[in-house]
């Protein structure tokens, strides 16, 4: 996973072998640091992995009732 980082924006390149759990962790950490997270991906497999990571991130960040 390559990344490009500015002061408040961070870009992650997602590939077909990226772990969704590690991607979720990276997204959560950067969102808690008040950074904007951008996922850069091309293809079906990276899209599937990024979607899984976003779903897990939402479940982690939303309060449970």
Description:
The protein has a single domain (3-61), classed as 2-Layer Sandwich (Translation Initiation Factor IF3). The protein has 2 helices and 3 strands; from the N terminus they run E-E-H-E-H. The mean pLDDT is 88. It has a 3-stranded mixed sheet with strand order 1-2-3, with helices on one face. The protein is of the alpha+beta class and 65 residues long. The radius of gyration is 12 Å and the shape is flat. The longest helix is centred in the last third of the chain and has 18 residues, at 44-61.
Keyphrases for this structure?
single chain; Translation Initiation Factor IF3; 48% helix; 3 strands; 65 residues; flat; three-stranded mixed β-sheet; alpha+beta
Secondary structure layout:
Blueprint: E1 3-5, E2 9-13, H1 20-32, E3 36-40, H2 44-61
Parallel strand pairs: 2-3
Antiparallel strand pairs: 1-2
């Amino acid at each position: 996973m390559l990344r490009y980082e500015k002061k408040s924006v961070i870009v992650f390149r997602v590939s077909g072998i990226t772990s969704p759990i590690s991607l979720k962790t990276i997204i959560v950490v950067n969102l808690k640091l008040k950074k904007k997270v951008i996922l850069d991906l091309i293809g079906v497999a990276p899209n599937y992995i990024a979607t899984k990571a976003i779903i897990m991130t939402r479940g982690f960040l939303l309060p449970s009732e």
